[in-house]
Amino acid sequence: MNARKLIPLLLTLFLSFGSIPATATPHADAEPAGKKLMAFVIDDFGNNMQGTDEILSMPVPLTVAVMPFLPSTKQDAELAHQKGHDVLVHMPMEPMKGKRSWLGPGAITADLSDDEIRSRVEKAIDDVPHAIGMNNHMGSKITADERIMRIIMKVVKERGLIYLDSKTTDKSVAAKIAAEMGVPHAVNQIFLDDVYSVPHITKQMELVCKRIHNHPLCIAIGHVGPPGKKTASVLRQYIPRIQKEAEFVTISKLIQQTAH
């Protein structure tokens, strides 16, 4: 190829690479540099829940999602940070079904004004020490609402945080709006303990292993609380097996390493 043809081609390549946002979403098929990546996110910290000690003492980096305004919110966030785990604000959001009493204090509900939503999100972030991001607690109704998610994402962006869509509904617009607004983000792929039994959690961990075998990354969510001790026990058993194929990372490191 002569120089006259080569220069426009190089210019086109340069411009196309330059247009890729630094906050791109990690996609399942995007090949990160180096080893495969495994991010476990554990929700529902903040209320002295069962399994808290067992999860926080795991010998691998995790992401700890802490609910705001609860008795052990600050204690759990501080300890998680000291142990090198990522801390997220586990933001209570109204579901399509279920009781509002399950949400906890400071929840985002669909009947709130724009100003009240912003205020609640800001206060929640301020209440959780060391938070580097946010994910939704419940929230099937809210994460499908563009008006509300734009307000939430605006605050997340202003605070320099990341967003993890827990994906409690297939109708969630969280990732789409995060991408539009330039918020670094990721999406949960597997729930570990939606059924509180060791056989079910084990079955889900097998899905995790299968996914990490076939894809460059996996994000999975478990919980402290009713399934906490069981989830911690099964997770600990699977650590050596997963480490043969993937590196355990926090969610912020996963997003950083897979953004192009």
Give your account of this protein's structure.
InterPro entries: Divergent_DAC, Glyco_hydro/deAcase_b/a-brl. Residues 1-24 form the signal peptide. The structure is a single chain. The protein has 260 residues and is of the alpha/beta class. The chain contains nine helices and nine strands. Strands 1, 2, 3, 4, 5, 6, 7, 8 and 9 form a nine-stranded parallel beta sheet that branches. It starts with a helix and ends with a helix.
Short précis:
The chain is an alpha/beta fold and 260 residues long. The protein has 9 helices and 9 strands.
Give the distance, in angstroms, between the N- and C-terminal Cα atoms: 29 Å
Q: Rough shape? A: globular
Main pleated sheet = 9 strands, parallel
Question: Mind telling me the C-alpha Rg?
Answer: 19 Å
- Report the sheet-strand fraction: 15-25%
What is the overall pLDDT average?
89
Count of separate DSSP helical elements: 9
List the uncertain runs: 1-25, 27-33
Number of strands: 9
**Helix amount, in percent?**
40-55%
What is the H/E string?
Answer: HEHEHEHEHEHEEHEHEH
Structural class: alpha/beta
